[in-house]
Amino acid sequence: MRSLRLNNCKFSNSRNYYDYYAAAQSAREVSLLTKENAQLKLETKSRKEMLQRVLNESRVAEEERQAAEAINKRIRAQIEEYRVPDVMDYVQTAAEDRDLTKKIKTWERKADIAEMALTTQQKNWNKMMQQDALATKL
Question: Which of 41, 46, 81, 126 is the most exposed place for a label (fewest CB within 10 A)?
Answer without folding.
Answer: 81
